[in-house]
Amino acid sequence: MSIIKIRSQPIKVDIQTELENFDWKRARWTRDKLIACSPFRFDGNPSFFVNLTGDYAGCFGDSGSYDSEWASGNFVKLLSFLRDETYEETEEYLEYTYGTTQPGAALTLDIPKLTLPRRKSYLAGDFMASFEPSLNSEYLTRRGITDKVQRYMTTGCDRMNQTVIIPWYDTNGKLANVKYRKTRGKVFFYEKGAVPIRNLIYGLNNVYTSKATTAVLTEAEIDAMSVMSSGARLHGLALGGANFTDYQRDLIVRSPIRRLVILADNDKAGGKLRDQVVEKLRGRCELAVADINTYKDANEVLMKEGPESLREIIQGAKAVKALRIF
Question: Up-side HSE of residue 196: CA atoms within 13 Å toward CB?
């Protein structure tokens, strides 16, 4: 356990345990450092490190970074990327999980500047017009996402086709947030001050519009679009990360969905997510788990094996037995 500062307060965090929740390529763990391939880009040689202890505990460095903003940073920044959520959401997670000051630490009173908290708000209806909503993303096309699905999910891109714009809508069809995904590397970020991703489910608005009773739940938006590009004729949903909140559970329970196929990533985080979804939704709707075998996620199956293989994996999902009530 190491002390890091979260919102100016010292909190003891188990950095190694948090990092072990994710799969690292060519990882080497030492007493005070993790050395591995960069999670921010496609990296064949370990050029990324995270300090596990000391004054710079949690700080990371990436010697081959494409973007100077992601060449280094603190633990909250790294974990927010790994968890696929905003910086503020990760701060809240760490405070909730570890939120105690250290025994014996000198008590200090930090008096913050008194301001009214900024309300998380919806985005303007014409927000996407500043991008290129009518131009299909070359990046998504290379990833196997069909033109039809891109139009259906109203994705866009910048004029240089270097950033994919992925809008998130609430169940009433209001624009709630936007994800910006760089086409080089793996860096992404969300619109600041918008509705938190943990309070949304990507694609659920389409379930309401079509009154669909079956859907496929994935982690990332591209996986959800991969499901729809496979020809499975099912709505793809995404949580935006490997965490299933109670709020998201309630969104599904209140929706028209009666059967949910869980298609999580094939890694540690994906396994935990699958178990979370089963635990929180068992008995509330019919559940089935799809197995992608040796592939990382739904999009990798689509790209390497083609739409028919992904379709067969979804169709072969195994039902989760309901709990017996005595």
Answer: 17
- Provide, for the chain, the percentages of residues in helix, strand and coil under a 3-state DSSP scheme, each rounded to the nearest 5: 30, 20, 45
Q: Which residues of 32-44 are buried (b: 16+ CB within 10 A; e: fewer)?
A: eebebbbbbbebe
Q: Which of 93-102, 205-214, 316-325: highest mean pLDDT?
A: 205-214
Rounded Cα gap, residues 58 and 209, in angstroms: 44
Determine contact, residues 72/61, Cβ cutoff 8 Å: yes
CB 50 within 8 A of CB 56: no
pLDDT of 119 reads: 54
Distance CA 153, CA 145 (A): 11
Q: Tell me how far apart the alpha carbons of residues 255 and 207 are, in angstroms, rounded to a whole number.
A: 8
pLDDT single digits (tens) 107-153: 444 444 444 444 568 998 788 877 765 567 889 999 999 999 999 99
- Specify whether the backbone of 240 is left (phi greater than 0), alpha (psi in -120 to 50) or beta: left
Q: How far apart are the first and last CA of the chain?
A: 43
Taking the mean position of all CA atoms in its chain, how far away is CA 247?
Answer: 15
Q: Which of 163, 252, 259 shows the shortest CA–CA distance to 215?
A: 259
Give the per-residue SS3 of 82-99: HCCCCHHHHHHHHHHHHC
Beta-carbon contacts of 84 under 8 Å, excluding residues fewer than 6 positions away, are: 188, 197, 219, 220, 240, 241, 242
* Model pLDDT for residues 211-255, shown as the tens digit of each residue: 999 999 999 999 999 999 999 899 999 999 888 999 999 999 999
Top pLDDT among 269 and 146 is at 146
Q: What angle do CA 318, 324, 326 make, to 5 degrees?
A: 175
pLDDT score at 133:
58
